[in-house]
Amino acid sequence: MVNIDSNLPVAALLPKLIAQLPGSKVVLQAPPGAGKSTALPLALLAAPAFQQQRILLLQPRRLAAMSIAHYLAQQLNEPVGQRVGYHVRGEQKFSASTQLVIMTEGMFVQYLQNDPELTGVGAVLFDEFHERNLYSDLGLAMLLESLCLRDDLSLLVMSATLPATEIATWLGSDTQVLQCEGRQYPITTHYRPVPTNSDWRVHCAQVIKEALAQAQQGVLVFLPGWHDIQCVTELLTDAVAADVLPLHRQISMAAQQQALAAPAQGHKKIVLATNIAETSLTIAGIDVVVDSGRERRAMFYPRHGIQRLVTQRISRAAATQRAGRAGRLGPGICYQLWASSDAHGMRDFDAPAVATEDLTQLLLECKRWGSEVQELAFFSPVNQAHLQAAQQLLQQLQIVDTRGTLTVLGQRVAAFGGDPRLARIAVAVQDADAPTRARAALLLAQLEAPLRQATHFPAPLAQLKGETRQRWQWWRKQLGVTDIPGSIDDGLMAELVLWGYPDRIARRRGSGRSYLTAYGGGVQFHQNDHREAGTWLVALTLNFSERQADAIVADYLPLRAVDLEHPALTHEWHTELTFVGPKQRLQAVEVQRLGAILCAQRAANKQPSASERAQLLCDYVRQSSEGFINFTAAAPLLARIDVALRGLTAAERADWPAFSSAVLLQSLEQWAVPYWQQMDSLADLRSWDPTPALLARLTYPQQQCLDALCPTHWQAPSGIRHRIDYLGEQPSVALKLQEVFGEPVSPSICRQQVTLVLELLSPAGRPLQRTADLASFWQNAYQLVKKEMKGRYPKHPWPDDPLQAQATVKTKRMLNNP
């Protein structure tokens, strides 16, 4: 028998929800502490419809999945692994008879890959969907295809802070929306903005002391990252009478459980956590929250091919989630380190991972699934630049071929799941001897979970701890290793790592400690880093500084000359264009490169034909970062086209070509090459005006439509034609004020959907007024302008009623003597 707390806000919805769920789609919006992660799964567990089928409850984080599983099993008076179990990366506890399995979204994707029909599963629950991890969006997109195979499979998407109506509309008209109003316990909010020119961590420590005085049991503090947790811990040590406990994914499981447990009798605790504690976790003994308003988010930088954690302000949705942690077990208090007025500037929701993160894993999973990314239904658009970078990396790793199809090797890599770089290394050593595989496991663990402040990479086994040691155990199992790795051989490690990081090879520039990488970016050692570095290295982990363009090398391996002959590296000679001589004439040369690194160059045996040269020129322009095409010259045309598109219907717009920079660069052969046949120097390329070529991309009827929607000139009532400037926020025309006498309202273009801004000038051509509402100008501002200008320009007309006056550029004398 399952007992559900009737006082939980979600309890009233459960009968209606259970009645709707079998074979249907539901979006549930419920506030923090409502019971959607605990009471709802237990209710489904007891529902007759799911007695013979398994329920999958998906969580964004490993710790939350395991914590919820233990909590639910405890409610049933059972150990984990009977009716309730869990499955996370590297650990699982369930059996064939387990009815409810709590798992991470990444593990769910692997379930789908192995069994698209989800045999034996009756319901899938996406909890905390607002976090929008890569695998939450991917898992849902894949599941929507599986629903075509299973009309009896139930889907429930739930969160405290998600746009429920938008998601339901996207899922389909048959999707139900249920909302649970009200919080279980009230929360009082106090604002404590950081004083100007103050260290926010020091201020946070002071607010924590204030919060501790209000707490009956404990304080939960949200901080961006591990470094901030360490800093605040030092500030609180010996300054508070409470247990200060960190909660971070990199600490041991025992330390995590200690932070989740209730404080000892008569003690208070302070839990310093990242956003790992934002959702789903029940942290015993918390009645006060201190929110720094900051978080660390993964951001991908295609230029470097690197994903890094960036500290940024949280969204309003995240602030709501964090404050809700104070009211889960009783009335709570939340201290927020910003002013109440600052909330207006916060974004509503966090950007989804498909828009900001590295998409290599997502792309590989889609290939393995048998679909292209654009064929799957994602709730938010996938970042196309990141997707292109992912495609290039998979091709470089030989996981996909030039057509984007999985190779035989790629199928083996995809079967590993997870990071394609690491899986590529693992596949490369699967058939190696045991000592090599043992060293590979040691390497892979440290690539996946780097040690902090290691003196040597990779570190010896004795230095592995926490998550890194857990990952080492996992990789040992994957590679079938029982041996303990012997001494570290940098040569072997470099050989192994190049299978997964061929784009991170770097060659020293000059005699300093700055390097050019194969991916085209620059890296260098920190000025206080005195490690020896040779001519070549492979940079594995990088840090970034806002003060310099080059990335800072963290973990790396030196490379020898023999390492450059690695099978993963291509050394073919190919023809490129270069500019030579004082006039920078185009000339073909044969080069040997490792990515962007020029290894050797020689004169070409023969010069290319005009068409071949044009193709090489296209490649040169695309690969260069200098922006050789003068799009500034074509800016007026591109701005006109952009405005014209607003006046087109969706059907009309579908027939027009795209004019984004990315599209134009990718299609140079179609629109630019016909104009480049006689081009033979850098000066020709730099001075080329692409406007005629871009206009030619439009058909003759489209050009006529463009002229009708967005003409180049507007004829004023004075009879004079004036050029329309489309480069501002709104199209505008500059002309003398007297030229619009008699014009009652502002003119419009683009099927009357866009109003022209009139920049009204004095008789001497100086600005008087800028308006998009001419009628209002005549009624209000004109009289003031007339009063000032009449004395300054007495020879020009300044009528009392401008609407009845003649439009002109003439003086009063010229008007009277035509």
From TrEMBL:
InterPro entries cross-referenced by the UniProt entry: DEAD/DEAH_box_helicase_dom, Helicase-assoc_dom, Helicase_ATP-bd, Helicase_C-like, HrpB, HrpB_DEXH, P-loop_NTPase, RNA_helicase_ATP-dep_HrpB_C
All residue ranges annotated as the Helicase ATP-binding domain in the record: 17-163
Assigned keywords, A-Z: ATP-binding, Helicase, Hydrolase, Nucleotide-binding
Cited Gene3D superfamilies: 1.20.120.1080, P-loop containing nucleotide triphosphate hydrolases (3.40.50.300)
Entry-linked PROSITE patterns: HELICASE_ATP_BIND_1 (PS51192), HELICASE_CTER (PS51194)
Domain Helicase C-terminal: 207-374
GO MF term set: ATP binding; helicase activity; hydrolase activity; nucleic acid binding
Protein name: ATP-dependent helicase HrpB
Organism for this UniProt entry: Pseudidiomarina sediminum
